Amino acid sequence: MDHAGRRARLLQRFDDLGVDAFCTGHLPNVRYLSGFSGSNGHLVVGVRAGVFLTDGRYTDQARREVADLDRVTYAGPPAAAMAQAIGRIGAARVAFEPEHLTYQAWADLADAGVELVAVRGVVEALRETKDAEEIGLIQMAQDAADQAFESIVAKLDEGVTEREVAIELEAAMRRAGADGVAFDTIVAFGPDGAEPHHRPTDRPLAPGDLVTMDLGALVQGYHSDMTRTVAFGQPEARLREVYEAVRRAQRAGVDAVRAGVAGRHVDRAARDQIRQAGLGDGFVHPLGHGVGLEIHEGPWLRATADGLLPERSVVTVEPGVYLPGLGGVRIEDMVEVLDGHGRVLARAPKDLVIL
Ligand code: ZN
Ligand code: ZN
Description:
Elements: H1 3-11, H2 14-17, E1 21-24, H3 27-34, E2 42-46, E3 50-55, H4 59-65, E4 70-74, H5 78-88, E5 93-96, H6 103-111, E6 115-118, H7 122-128, H8 132-153, H9 162-175, E7 180-181, E8 186-189, E9 209-215, E10 217-219, E11 222-223, E12 226-232, H10 237-256, H11 263-276, E13 288-290, E14 297-301, E15 314-317, E16 320-323, E17 327-330, E18 333-337, E19 342-344
Parallel strand pairs: 1-5, 3-4, 5-6
Antiparallel strand pairs: 1-2, 2-3, 7-10, 8-9, 9-12, 10-11, 13-14, 15-18, 16-17, 18-19
Helix pairs in contact: 5-6, 8-9, 10-11
The structure holds zinc ion (2 copies).
One zinc ion binds at residues 225, 289, 316, 318, 332.
């Protein structure tokens, strides 16, 4: 990974931001800029030099992963060590991330005489555009989820519980090479599908149930995200109609994805299909989100998203309809944003599978 190149792109923003250094302890941003994959690390990026700071648990790991920066291991409060590092590189005005830095750390840095400038979403914006290596890791994470989905379909039997299916999906993703799961797997049978983020229970699978499975894997820090809804036996006619409406919306959303289009335009393209089916009130969340070092990141696909999708970003397209008491349907793919079109990363089928 080209961490130095990423830091160089961050430096190009310094004039606009009016700063001569940037500090972050937000782990996805630390990892993006330095390669560090541990659970505690801070970074100060200055014009001439950068410093990576962590605690004693990670001294060795940092030596391997952050070979091209000065490294500091601290024992006391991180803010004191950061203030020292900022002084050492001679920075005067330091950008910090108000949505990530704790108030305590902010106060400690200010007490130490650091002049702090709040900047929002700068590294997050850089992260939206993926390089080939990042796309490759997201694809590997998706491939693991696809394998898990294929293996579970044969195991959906009457009486199996949501919890058992979730455990099996997670194990299958690990067997397929994932480092872990991208998020807690969602499995919802029948009426439970009316909750978009249902937590798996001991509910047993019954004939006629729709089964919604939302799963993702983690590979070298990169996430995947996919939802499929399948039918266990013949679902009632109403649920079939809902499925077909969501299927049309998902297709319209994927078809609207291309570099340079506004996120809200893609949301609208999918939402219109669900409204036309008279189900608009049941689509209770935005259409999608970016995926990368975080499971939810920019760019966003929602009614208020004016931002244009950058080429080589990765977004989900995940319309859903949720009907309390009856059930729900969601279909979700990750789509790579390309010039003139989008590329779906998943290979699992989207026409209704009736088991
Ligand atoms: Zn999902
Ligand atoms: Zn998602």
